[in-house]
Amino acid sequence: MTEQAISALRDIHHQMREVLTGLDVGQWAEPSGCEGWRVQDVVAHVTSNLKNTVDPAPADQNAPELKAEEAMDALVEPRLGWSPEQLLAEYDQYFEGWIGAMSSLQEEPTASTVAPLADLGSHQLHLVANAFAFDHYCHLRIDLADQASALPPATDDMVRPGIDWMLAGLPQMQVEELAAAVQEPLLLDLTGPGGGQWVIGPADESGLVSVSEGSAEVAATITSSAHDFVSWGTKRSDWRQACSIDGNSDAATAFLDTVNII
Question: What pTM was estimated for this model as a whole?
Answer without folding.
Answer: 0.94
